Every structure is written in structure tokens, then in C-alpha cells.
Amino acid sequence: MKRKRIRLGVLILTTTLVLNLGVVADASTATPFGTSRWRAPRVTYVVSGSSYYRYIYATAIRAWNATGQFHFVPGSYAHHQVTLTTSGATTGQYHMLAGITFTSGPRNGYFTQARVLLLTRNLATYHYTTYDQIHVAEHELGHVMGLQHSTARNSVMLANNRYNGISRNDIYAVERRYHTPVGRHS
To answer: Which N-terminal residues, if any, form the signal peptide (predicted)?
Structure first.
């Protein structure tokens, strides 16, 4: 009787170690986040641009809101934290980008404003499909939340991403970002 219990204990311990090693291996592809974030995982936004790009942003927002880790809430032009818009810029530092995010805030590490640009000329020049553009918007919204570029091939935060939607690692990173004190990163 004692031998069966010992064997069962060893089996459970071995299984636990194998499962934990899998988690550790997955942690190497975790989506990184920076030291800054919003005070809470909720911001207000406004969208400007054509109805097509309003659709692109709305779809990306629905995808992030569906994760339950962060909420983008419509604001007004007088009261909002995030501006989502487009630009036709294609020169200088923007010559190969599909989108760009600017964040600002006081020195205490909390964001107070953000501005996202989808670069429409580049999206057209490089033949981004509607789905590709939604993924670019999801990527830029990831930056708004405080996520950085990932090296994971399936991450929406992969630099130059156009094919990946939001992954489990991306969702987990947002959860961790808002449970990690300001000034600390992944």
C-alpha cells in the first residue's frame, strides 16, 4: 500500500515539474511591457478619420475589450485621453511604418495622453488588407496600454506585425502590466 502512494506521489511531482517547465518555456515568449501605464486599465478615446478607418479602430477596440483586461470607452472631443486618427505621412522616420503611437504623461510614470496614427499611404502602398490593418490597430492599441514589441511570432506586438491578432501572451501581459507597480517592467 505504501509503495503505491509513493509511486503516485512521484508521478504527480513529475507531472507538475513537466507542466511547470512548459510554463517557463512559454515565459520566454511573453509579451514585454514598459515601466509606464495608465492609472487604471480603462481609457476614454475619440476617433477621427474616414468611416473606413473608424471601422478599423472600432474592430480593434472590440477585440481588446473582449479580453476583459483593458477597456477603451468612447469619450468626447472635449474629454478624452486617447486620440485615434490617420496620417498620410510617408517620409522620414515614417517611410516604412504602418502605424505609430505617441504617449505622454508626468514624471510619476502614468500616461495622461496618447495619440495613435495609422499611416494610410503606407498601408495602401504595401497592400495591407482590411484584416492586416485591424491587426496594426490592435498592435498600436497594445502600445497605448503599455506593451512593448515582442519577439513571439504569434504576438500582435511583434514588430512589423500585420498578420497576427491578439494572443494569450498579449492578454496576459496586459493583466500583468496593470498588476505590476508603475516603474517596474516585465
So the answer is: 1-25
Give yes or no for a contact between 75 and 45, defined as CB atoms under 8 angstroms apart. Answer: yes
The vertex-141 CA angle with 23 and 164, nearest 5°, equals: 55
Distance CA 90, CA 120 (A): 9
Domains and their CATH numbers in the chain: 39-177 (3.40.390.10)
The answer to whether residue 23 scores a pLDDT higher than 50 is: no
Q: Residue 63 has what DSSP assignment?
A: H
Tell me the three state secondary structure of residue 46.
Answer: strand
- Report which of 73, 163, 151 is spatially closest to residue 173, judged by C-alpha positions: 151
CA atoms 140, 143, 145, 151: torsion sign: positive
Q: How far apart are the first and last CA of the chain?
A: 47
